[in-house]
Design goal:
339 residues, 6-stranded parallel β-sheet, alpha/beta, 7-stranded parallel β-sheet
Amino acid sequence: MRIAMLAPISWRTPPRHYGPWELVTSLLTEALVAKGVDVTLFATADSKTAGRLEAVVPAGYSEDRSLDAKVMEMLHVSHVFEQADRFDLIHNQADFVPLAFTRLVETPVVTTIHGFSSPRIVPVFKRYEDRVHYVAISEADKNPDLKYAATIHHGIRIEEFPFDAEGSDDLLFFGRMHPDKGAGEAIRAAIATDHRLLMAGIIQDEEYYRTQVAPFIDGERIIFDGPVGGAGRTRALGQAKALLHLIGFEEPFGLSVIEAMACGTPVIAYNKGSMPELIEHGVTGFLVDTFEEAVAAIGRVGEIDRRACRRAVEQRFTVEHMAGKYLALYESILGTAPR
């Protein structure tokens, strides 16, 4: 089985710090290669993979601002479809633009829909739903007007997230500085409960950061470390009392949620989007509907068994689990015998 994996090119695959779509693409690619699948990763030239790498774009356009995003995307997408006959299947992780190329080739195409940036892009997916096999990353993110081949949750390399049985008394916010992700809500909750709050993530909305976050950062009670990766990331996730995920939108998935749980850290999240699919209320965290409920839940974190958080990820959200489901989908589409 020869698979062309088409990565997004906003960031390197895998990303150095931020880049959730690129991270998932890398995790799946490497897991498939480890299973003996012949995978060619189409990504930025500085990307890293155990498979073959094909690249016409030098770096992520969010990392090198001299690159024109639209030009790079056209070069990138056309590069894989111009050699589609080399592959048994193309797996598109790069949103809706590649869909417009799919009727120009005979190679089957799978598209993982990582979320809808706007309802205005849905017509593109609708136009090609009879040509492309769509995968939802959660039941919550399914558009009722589209046909789907499967729902496959993301998975992580759980061995990279050490279990911390104790945690600390510090709360954690891990995400973009943007109204959607609730950084300001996390600050308010930490202040209301007299906890120190550690914050990590990229600044995506400068005005929101300037008005809702920056005035509270004092380096003592509210600490912002910017984008954090590697050992710093896992240390922050594992040493927290709880992850505050007080989102303001219907989130398709939440990688930081399952990463925190893998380390044993419970999650307090607004009951929106995919959160009920990831968090078992009262077992791995708390699903809340109001800010007042979030504040109350912080006082109940001691009721959560951190080992239960780890077990939930081991049972449902490993990269092996994710890769197995994708491989079964590929085999179903191609009519090949299951491995």
